[in-house]
Every structure is written in structure tokens, then in C-alpha cells.
Amino acid sequence: MFTGLVQQLGRVESRVPSDSGEALWISLEGWGHRPEPGASIAVAGCCLTVADRRLDGDRIEAVRFDVVPQTLRRTTIGSLSEGDRVNLEPSATPETLLGGHLVQGHVDEVGKVLAITTDGEWRVRIGVGGSFAPLLVARGSIAVEGVSLTIAGLDHDWFEVALIPETLDRTTLRDLKVGDGVNLEGDCIAKMVVRVLETRLGSDLPGAIDAIRSTPASD
Fold first, then answer.
1. Is residue 103 part of a domain?
2. What pTM was computed for the model?
3. Which one is predicted more confidently, 133 or 105?
4. Which pLDDT does position 209 carry in this prediction?
5. Which among 70, 147, 175, 214 has most CB atoms closer than 10 A?
6. Are 117 and 79 in a shared domain?
7. Residue 31 is part of which domain span?
8. CATH code at position 31
């Protein structure tokens, strides 16, 4: 479990084919966190398990993750190149401040950056598929590349997030370009609600959601 608050920007050192998929080495870039083998770290929003570490004295320089083919296919991990920066967050503990929202590190979809505006307000518009759209709620929570964000605008096949300077400085979202893919994870509560509605409404779910969205809010 994570909170969507990025703790460090790591850098991809290498991707090497292995019997189980790929061995992914990430430089921690001076991060003081000391993960043990078996610990979970969110890498660009994907929950991965530390398989090995490279030490420089008492300091951990880099960690290795074994990435299975499904993760490579279904997330942006499969498109990373040597030198790319990635958002890193250690798993939450009972003492962790929930400054973001509950994030599982389970990527639901890879969205596509449709537009970026920086005039007055930095906004990113991200396109999504029909199966992911029901998880989007105006002013609801979303994890983009592992970053906890609030949905600032949405339509049937896209949503927008507004990025503050702190987020731009501390994450990879400043590096996004139109056409880039981004890991998306919907709010876990929204997933449960949608699942219940699916069992009740079946194929009528998209219409029901459209009706809810089009209903004016009461004062």
C-alpha cells in the first residue's frame, strides 16, 4: 500500500532479459531509504519487489527488481530506457501520514497524454479507455505515474489534472510530452462502487454513469 506521495526520483540503469521477464536496475540517486530484499517500492506507480541491492559502504546505490512479462506489457515499465527518471515511493506503514490517498500500486490502464497547457496553470489532459472512464469522478483521486492527484476536469474519454510547482519539481510529470503513456490507477473505493453497480446494472452501467454526471448538483 502507498499514498501517492513521491519520495525520490530514481534513474533507470539497465534492463536485462531474464528467465522471469526482465531484471530492472534503478539507481536511487542518493535516496536515504534502505529497502531490504523483499520490500515493496512503487516505481512509476507500479508495486515492485526489491530482489537485490548494490551497496557502496553503508549506502544503497541501486536496487534490482524482477519484472514479469505482464507488468512489462500492461504498464509504462516496458517502455523505459536507460537514463529515464522514475517516481519512487516506499510502501506505507501504520505511522505513514496519508497526505495523498490510498494507492495499491496496481496499474489499471496506461493512459495517453493528449494535451499540456502551461499558461497560467499547468494542466495535463490524459485520454482513457471506456473500461477505465467509470472510475473517474470530478474532484476525485487518481494516481498518475504513482503521483496522487485530484481530477480537475473530465469528459467521457479524458480527464485533466492541475499540477502545482511542488509536484512538478518533485516528480517526473514535468517531463511529460504529448503522446506519452502514463500509468493510471483509479481510486480503490471507486473500483468497489463500480463493481457493485456492474453486478446490479450490467450493460446499463455506462448509461447510468452518464445520467449521474449530467444531473445538476443540488445547492
1. no
2. 0.88
3. 105
4. 56
5. 147
6. no
7. 8-90
8. 2.40.30.20
